[in-house]
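Q: For a teaching handout, I want to show students what a protein-ligand complex looks like in token form. Below are the inputs, and the small molecule is farnesyl diphosphate. Please produce the holo structure.
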Amino acid sequence: MSRIPVHVAFIMDGNGRWAQVRGLPRHEGHRRGAAVVKKILRVAEKNGIKYVTLFALSSENFLRRSEFEVNFLMNLCEKFLKKYSKTLCEKEVRFRAIGNLSRLPINLQLAIEKLTRSTAHFDRFHLTIALNYGARNEVIRAIGNLLQNKNVDVENLTWKGFEQYLYTKDLPDPDLIIRTSGEQRLSNFLLLQSAYAELYFTKTHWPDFNEKEFLLAIEDYGTRERRMGKTNDKAND
Ligand code: FPP
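A: Here is the structure, written as tokens, with farnesyl diphosphate included.
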């Protein structure tokens, strides 16, 4: 394969619709979706992608979905982290969670803290899960924290300086954002970090997303000319 993205972020959409067309409850779609996560991480790793970020729950989902569905998703994440914590450590995967984590159930917060701490020294592969995450909230929080820092020279603030206040401060910007299930929008996900990201949309619902589809997305990324403000002859340098 030609050019491989360093950081791929996923908007894992369509779990509910996948379940509904099969006459199943929505949460069955989430359960199937979690199983896909495992497969996708393996494909990413195998193909030399170093960072994967997953939009597992937006701050809007957190507020607007039924309590049952939100609890189900939180439980699913907790189980996922507990089930795979050993494997993630063995594979030297650095785990992070981004978003307003203080609102999550305490058991999930503890599982996140534990895994974040025990994988903090790894650098081979990076898995980040966005939970109760919203880009606008992230920016407001960043500005609040920045203004509290009396040493900041606001007049001469650069992007490099500002991004230190984002949840993603230790992560490179995503090169490729993949959204499943047909919607063609970012839905408040990594809005600033995706300034130069390539976007890939597929109609496939997340529970049906698979290795073949992922490879198609990577292949398509390889054909994109990433100018990032440069002229054609300097693109992809
Ligand atoms: C969007 O589908 C998906 C979500 C809100 C949840 C995504 C969560 C998972 C795939 C599982 C948990 C994740 C991990 C990391 C273990 P939707 O419910 O909005 O689908 P719809 O648009 O068809 O209703």
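A: Two things your students might notice: The pocket of farnesyl diphosphate is lined by residues 12-17, 30, 33-34, 37, 54, 56-57, 61, 73, 76-77, 80, 129, 181, 206 (CB under 6 Å). The chain has a mean pLDDT of 95.
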